[in-house]
Design brief:
With 227 residues, the protein is α/β, with parallel strands linked by helices. It has eight helices and six strands; from the N terminus they run H-H-E-H-E-E-H-E-E-E-H-H-H-H.
Length: 227
């Protein structure tokens, strides 16, 4: 039986959502809409190239950098390995690097700075006290008040795949459907739910379509690298 693509591999994730195709664009916008809880209709992938040289690297950095029509930026990555201390430092470092990509011209108001999102999809629980499927962090004081105007400008968002519930697709939210798809796409025991999720959501159907374009040889190579 042909193997199915493991979407928890960072290169597989980018192959699906970073491709220069209509299907990939629809899938990526749908995924971002579910995570950010706002309609995303168009984004531009800023690092979409997938070369044979990248595939041969032992430790390729395969995060997905995208820009929104209004100037916002998001860096999306898939993580399966967890080093508790280094993980949080690294994510914060990536978020700062993402913010620093915006250069204001002389005389330009600081209010032209656009929000940035460091989105990390993890196949592990990042910490016991973070109980939700999506945990979102921004700048607040000790009372929980958001920093005026600038609080939401830099957001660190964790999506914890192990938190996704196993239930009928009709009872899932769009966010839960997407994360079920990412978590269990290759799981033979979950295929009946996967098929329903694909049937019910256009964005997820487009991601499935992108995968169907891939050769079995490429899928096997990605799965082997993941293992």
């Amino acid at each position: 039986m042909p193997s199915k693509l493991n979407l928890k591999h960072d290169m597989a994730f980018k192959s699906v959502f970073g491709s220069d195709t209509k299907e990939s664009q629809i899938a990526l916008c749908s995924l971002l809409s579910s995570i950010l809880k706002q309609q995303v209709s168009s984004v531009r992938v800023m690092n979409s190239e997938l070369t044979s040289e990248i595939a041969k690297q032992k430790h390729p950095r395969m995060d997905l950098l995208v820009s929104f029509d209004d100037g916002r930026l998001a860096n999306i990555e898939m993580q399966v390995v967890y080093d508790p201390k280094e993980f949080f430092y690294r994510m914060f470092y990536y978020e700062i690097r993402l913010a620093s990509r915006q250069i204001l011209k002389e005389g330009e108001p600081y209010s032209n700075f656009h929000p940035v999102y460091q989105i990390v999809i993890t196949d592990f629980i990042i910490s016991p006290e973070y109980e939700y499927l999506v945990e979102q962090f921004e700048q607040r004081n000790w009372k929980g008040q958001t920093l005026k105007y600038a609080g939401p400008l830099m957001q660190l968002i964790f999506v914890q795949l192990p938190k996704v519930p196993v239930m009928d697709a009709k009872d899932m939210s769009l966010l839960e459907k997407w994360n079920f798809f990412l978590k269990y796409f290759e799981d033979e025991g979950k295929q009946s739910i996967i098929k329903e999720v694909i049937k019910q959501e256009e964005g997820i159907a487009m991601a499935d379509k992108v995968i169907k374009y891939m050769s079995q040889e490429w899928i096997d190579q990605l799965n082997e690298e993941f293992e």
